[in-house]
């Protein structure tokens, strides 16, 4: 984990800049590096980007932008003074190059004209309603097994447009699927538990996350964080007290989803993916935006509406379809009475194919308080999972 910044510009950041030399940066294998006791700042070589990679808010003011330079302060627990100095340096470099600085932690874009929340898509396009299919599951090792191949086969067979057009560790995604191929993508997923995955319209993106607890624990101990008082608001602090699960989200434009042929295909895909992932909860919800701001996400989380790998209980706002396994269905009698048993042992309540495509709440009633996600912090009273995964030496 690191503190990450980006510089967007029309030309590469010059390694010969006096700003870098004066700040103590040295060249190392094409990177610019500054080191201290237990921390380092790494400035990566410039990455050439396509117009579709440039955030809309940058393109509006800096239409010639074609270069992206990443700056990483490692580890994320580095002194606040180092982070502040790095941000000031990035602002100075961006000003010198007539560029912009993106703070990946806050989603704030620092332009010559001031600050604004970064947006990656045209607001007009973003207002198009989306539908999101979500699967939440316990098996965090599935992406390292043959199940990942099974999952991709399901996507290829039922909705090939959901397969990646481009993918990578961060935005903009570096790999083009048509060039790298399926085998490379599978190997990439095995070592990348939260990649950037861009699909083809009508799909907007795929959110893929399965935390690698062993790797995180190793980094936690290597950075000596076990010897410090954990910050409950930090990633590692939260990871020690809250439950995380695997989460895959497939997002598409609602207009296409509602078409009969797409609707039938989406239902098949929803169930076939469930057979592979074995989720304890899966859903189809509408009205999702392709690029919500950080403020919007936090507002949803405060209301208990956020969908992420931090699982606290069943979301209170139900969508067009919900699938449960035995973990929860016994605690929701009205849901079980309205459900159809599918794929042998899953319970499904849906409105696929119905003339009035709307929330299933009329069929199931509200989520029982015992299993519903409360407002943060905290978890539902009935919570059949190990709540904590402590990072400690064994």
Molecular structure report:
A 10-stranded antiparallel sheet has the order 12-11-13-14-15-10-16-17-19-18. Strands 1, 2, 3, 4, 5, 6, 7, 8 and 9 form a 9-stranded antiparallel sheet that branches. The chain has 394 residues and is of the alpha+beta class. The model is unreliable at 288-306 (pLDDT under 50). Helices cover 30% and strands 24% of the residues. Helix 5 runs antiparallel to helix 10 (260-277). The chain contains 14 helices and 19 strands.
Gross geometry: globular
Unreliable runs: 288-306
The total count of strands amounts to 19
Helix content bin:
25-40%
Total DSSP helices: 14
What percent strand?
15-25%
Biggest sheet architecture: 10 strands, antiparallel
What's the short version?
The protein has 394 residues and is an alpha+beta fold. It contains 14 helices and 19 strands. About 5% of the residues have low confidence.
Per-chain topology:
Blueprint (H helix, E strand, L loop, with lengths): L2 E7 L8 H5 L3 E3 L2 E6 L2 E5 L3 E2 L7 H6 L5 E8 L5 H17 L3 E4 L4 E4 L2 E4 L5 H4 L3 E8 L9 H12 L7 E3 L6 E2 H14 L5 E3 L4 E7 L3 H10 L12 H5 L6 E8 H4 L2 H18 L3 E8 L5 H9 L18 E4 L1 H4 L3 H6 L1 E3 L3 E5 L10 H4 L30
Antiparallel strand pairs: 1-6, 1-7, 2-3, 3-4, 4-6, 5-6, 7-8, 8-9, 10-15, 10-16, 11-12, 11-13, 13-14, 14-15, 16-17, 17-19, 18-19
